[in-house]
Description:
The complex is a heterodimer of chains A (257) and B (207).
Chain A: H1 2-17, E1 22-24, E2 27-36, E3 49-60, E4 66-77, E5 83-87, E6 104-109, E7 114-119, E8 124-129, H2 138-149, E9 151-162, E10 165-176, E11 187-196, E12 201-209, E13 213-223, E14 240-242
Parallel strand pairs in A: 8-14
Antiparallel strand pairs in A: 1-2, 3-4, 3-13, 4-5, 5-6, 6-7, 7-8, 9-10, 10-11, 11-12, 12-13
Chain B: H1 3-9, H2 20-26, H3 30-53, H4 60-73, H5 88-91, H6 93-114, H7 123-139, E1 143-144, H8 146-151, E2 161-168, H9 169-175, E3 187-194, E4 200-205
Antiparallel strand pairs in B: 1-4, 2-3, 3-4
Amino acid sequence: MHTLRWLWIAGFAATLYGQEPRAIFRNPEVRLLGAQPGRPREVVKGAPYSADVSTEINRTLADGNKIHQIVTERLYRDSEGRTRRETSLTGIGIPAPPGGGPELAFIDDPVAGASYVLDLGAHTATRMPWRAPKSDGPLRRQLRVRAQDFNRKVESLARQTIAGLPADGTRITQTIPAGQIGNTLPIQVVTERWYSPDLQTVILEKRSDPRSGDYIYQWTNIIRAEPPASLFSVPADFPLSQALPPGGRARGKRAQQ
Amino acid sequence: MNCDRFRKQLSEFGALDVPGDALAHLGTCAGCAVAYQRQRKLETGLKQLAAAQAEWSAPAYVEAALLERFRSESPRPAPPAPAPQLPFLFRFRIPALLAAGALAAALALLVIARAPQSAHIPEKAVSQVAETEDDSAVDNGFIMLPYFANSGEVANTSEDDVVRVVMPRSALVSLGVPVTDDSTSGSVEAELLLGQGGVPQAVRVLE
């Protein structure tokens, strides 16, 4: 087991250190060392799209101060279930440079059995074996259990058109009774989630929590057409590093595409 | 809560069940924050170890052979009369045989424990280890950032991508990570777990 564990750690380190660190956000103090794609949640075939996604967080602090953050991404999926996710990493809390584009692209290719991380600034790519979808990991299981601790009410909402697509809504209201966490009054956390049967994904989610503010995850500019195939492959001018699979064995430091 | 009390109760804290006063202390003490991360890592490692070894056991014939060996080497009942004085070399024969038997048992168990990596671990156990290893890469040592720790639930569309960065230690403060005033200088290497929409959900400081 230890061998597997250390091989995985070594593989992850190789993935992360396969390229020179570089500054991101034009902030020389913050450097990107690398990235590791997560396991895909599911593979959906026959429902291609391109879409912009924004995640907006608004908080009002006790002294009246306000925090407003927006993180944007660009998502693609082709008919074979390949996905590409371009992210700017602005969610780390450091503003992106004016006119700055996405910093990273995560590509999942279940057809070829590979996942890639493209560093769009440094023009490098890292390849990993594709991992099949699976249920939640321990961290999310813990979160789910914790969520069940609260009084929870789930309601179905009438179908609406969201961003041009029919979507089915669900509202989840979680109530933390007075005194449970030292609160003098009950706390209500309301989550509204809109699921598109056509795209088989959530395209709008709103969450309101008096402790941490409002959160809006929203898809816009949805185009239901086949994205260019080139988006799901590594550009020719991106040197490709071969990363190790979890618990896998080394297959050389560099690999040709 | 002070450091002493926090350290005494450290082993009782779950990943997300830190009492309010302990959480407040974490926000003011970098040393205890590091200790908390180490404790979480240790617990996860022990769970992995337990999961990996859950189905390991020595074959029945090993136990039978060892018992037989011990029986054959154990001393016969002493005669009622005072035992005759044995020559010097024979005086140490029985303890020596017992020690040899114990050594043989230890060696046998060691061989069995080493061999399963390729032969004795059932397929199910191997897959369990692989799954656990996989999860550990994402979950070990991560601290949920306040916004998501408070939300109680995350949408099931999250991707769990991880990015590793070097950032000013002071930037941790903006993420909501507890950092004491005297440790905000310099840089820190950290991994950020990105969830739905690319928003950081958890952070793991690698120092």
